[in-house]
Amino acid sequence: xxxxxxxxxxxxxxxxxxxxxxxxxxxxxxxxxxxxxxxxxxxxxxxxxxxxxxxxxxxxxxxxxxxxxxxxxxxxxxxxxxxxxxxxxxxxxxxxxxxxxxxxxxxxxxxxxxxxxxxxxxxxxxxxxxxxxxxxxxxxxxxxxxxxxxxxxxxxxxxxxxxxxxxxxxxxxxxxxxxxxxxxxxxxxxxxxxxxxxxxxxxxxxxxxxxxxxxxxxxxxxxxxxxxxxxxxxxxxxxxxxxxxxxxxxxxxxxxxxxxxxxxxxxxxxxxxxxxxxxxxxxxxxxxxxxxxxxxxxxxxxxxxxxxxxxxxxxxxxxxxxxxxxxxxxxxxxxxxxxxxxxxxxxxxxxxxxxxxxx
Length: 359
Known about the structure:
- The structure is a single chain.
- The protein is α+β, with helices and mostly antiparallel strands.
- It has 2 domains: 1-188, Beta-Lactamase (2-Layer Sandwich); 193-350, Histidine kinase-like ATPase, C-terminal domain (Heat Shock Protein 90), CATH 3.30.565.
- Helices cover 33% and strands 25% of the residues.
- The protein has helices at residues 7-13, 32-38, 42-45, 59-66, 130-155, 161-182, 197-210, 233-251, 318-328; strands at 17-21, 27-30, 54-56, 72-81, 84-95, 98-108, 193-195, 217-221, 229-231, 258-265, 270-271, 280-281, 284-290, 332-338, 343-350.
- The strands form 4 sheets. It has a 6-stranded antiparallel sheet.
- Strand 11 and strand 12 (280-281) form a beta hairpin.
- Helix 5 runs antiparallel to helix 6 (161-182).
- The radius of gyration is 24 Å and the shape is elongated.
- The model is unreliable at 111-129 (pLDDT under 50).
C-alpha cells in the first residue's frame, strides 16, 4: 500500500485557492492555485495583508474577511483579485487545531467583470496569463516528483541516495525558476554572489548526463586559475542547462558528435552597451561549443527573440530566457558560427567577483 501524501502535496494538487491567515490578517501560506490566481509567487504573498490581494464588493464580506472569529461560506460574490473584479465562491473558517489561524478557500469564475486590460470579452482572456497557468501546471507534478523521490530515498541503499538527492535538488531548482519567471514583471534583481563557475558547470553537466541516453561526449577545456564569477547560482544553472541541452540536441545528427565547454579569462575585456554610461568589464568567458549544423542563416540575427526555434517541438523560449537571465546578472551572451571549423559557439561574458562580494 502506498504511503499517504503529505499536506503540501495535497494542497499543491487542489484546483481551488487555499491560503492561511493569522490574527493580523497576514497570509501565512498559499498553494500553487493561489499563485496562479493572484499572478505572483507564494513567497511574494506570505507576510502581506490578505486585503492586498482580496477585497469584496460587499462591506459585510470585507468585515468577515478581517474578523478573526468569523466562519462563512458564500457563493457567486463579487471580489477584487489584486484589482481585477471577478465572481468567486468563498469560504473562511478558523482552524480548530490552531485558533490563531484561519483557512481561506476561493474559486474564481474568471468572468472578468471589470477587466481594464484591453482584451475583448469573447473568452480569449481568462484573467490569468500563460506563464502563470504554465507555472501552476508544472508545480503540481513537481510536488509529486519531489515527494516520490523523498519516499524512494528512505527505501534504497546509501549508494543510490545520490540519485534521489539529485532529483530533489533539480525539482527545487525548477520550482525556484518558475517563481522567478512568475515575478519577471516586477523586475526583481538577480541574487548575485561569488560562485565557482567550474563547480556549477560540473553540477549541471551531471544533471544532463544522468538523463542523456545517447551519452554525447562533453569535453572540458577549463582555465584552472579562473577567479569566481559574480552571478545568481540558480539563474546561471538554468543558462548552462539550456545552452548545453541545445548543444547536445544539435550534435545528435553528427557521426562524431562533440560538445566542448571552455572557460577563460579575457584580460581587459570590455563590452560597450547603449543602456549603460560606460563600458562594462566582463573578463570571464564561458563558451559552449559544438560541431552541429548551427543555426539557419535566415534566423541567426533573431535567435534570442521569443518563439524563434529550429526544433519541430520547441517553444522558442530557451534562448530568450538565457539572454534575459544573463542580462539580469549584468553579463552578455553572443552567438557565432565558425564556418571553416564547422563549430557553433555561444559565449557568456560574465563579471568577476571581488573577494567576499555578494549582493
